[in-house]
């Protein structure tokens, strides 16, 4: 049984704890919060033995072997590094860090300390996403794809009311591409690897973060368009088009439904059953890496490639999201 702790006491942390326990491979033994009362409130639902208000103390504790990090994006790297240095395995919510430099440093730290580092990008581990990858040959020669995730944020009204929620605060490495847009970006890289080049545009809020945007990834023979937003909803599915037909995916992040529409024929439902808690599969993947002590794994390359595309912290500007053309081979914005 892997003894683990959590940083963050929000809904996504509860969902992961439930998923981790469902695997039968994890046991929650510690909770961190800046507020002891908040940590206790979270722990009331689980048989937790240790509560911490000090990250350093929890990182040093023998009560844990691993940590799940679900804090604001800007804190991911420093917290990841702290726990890796104290020989704890780390599962960190996506994005793994604020920029490529931090991702590279986190990966190096994991290697130096021989600990598992795993970015919690759940989509890549879903049965229906794996099915989607296997089904790509069905469409024949591919020409284009649209990966779509637009969802009106529950915190947007607070922003409009003059508040400064983390979701729309650049100090926390927030914004659309670093949140729901990340599902589109990382999914594209899992399916097709890094593109030859990227063209992107984004509409920025007065706070400085991107509210919504479009990214076009050029792969030579085909292109992939990503559409993301935190200020509007969309009813469109994602679609991958080829000469023999199309694959249609409902709610990309969850891969709720996958269908194949052969050219000139009726649509076929390919969907497989999935657990209602879709974080179960990434919890199982993390457990396997720990049990086999697999420090080097494909997820690290995915984290790095996605950070390279999403990097918004260049020396001269805020990254390709400000508009412009990103050459994937040179890590520069033109």
Automatic annotation (TrEMBL):
The keyword RNA-binding does not apply. Signal peptide: none annotated. One of its GO terms (molecular function) is 1,5-anhydro-D-fructose reductase (1,5-anhydro-D-mannitol-forming) activity. Residues 2-119 form the Gfo/Idh/MocA-like oxidoreductase N-terminal domain. It is an enzyme of class 1 (oxidoreductase). Residues 139-247 form the GFO/IDH/MocA-like oxidoreductase domain. Its EC number is 1.1.1.292. Keywords: Oxidoreductase. This is Oxidoreductase. It comes from Salmonella enterica subsp. arizonae.
